[in-house]
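Troubleshooting entry. The earlier prediction with FE2/S2 (inorganic) cluster gave an output that would not parse, so I re-checked the input for stray whitespace and re-submitted. Clean input:
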Amino acid sequence: MAKIRYTHPDGSETVVDVPEPNSVMRGAKLNNVPGIEAQCGGSAQCGTCHVYIDEANTLPLPPMDEVEDDVLYGTASPRRETSRLSCQLPVSDAIDGLVVHLPEVQS
Ligand code: FES
């Protein structure tokens, strides 16, 4: 279980407890958090689960693989240093308190 904090472009935020096994994307969908479309359902193909990891993050996240890296070049909102696909971020106790910022648009 991890508490994930989704920050919206208007500055508001939604905080939810996400059980394992789930991804940060799935946690948003299960809790009706707006701003993550996830059109491909989590198979790292659509780029519509794009998030920006908070710049102050020190929690351990899995490294980005080649597929995720490629998809992040095609996102609707600009790719940044902190960009990740939320479907590729598994939830665990280790990322309890993770803060992700949602982009202006996903598609
Ligand atoms: S849900 Fe499609 S890339 Fe993550």
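This one parsed fine. The CA atoms of residues 19 and 47 lie 23 Å apart.
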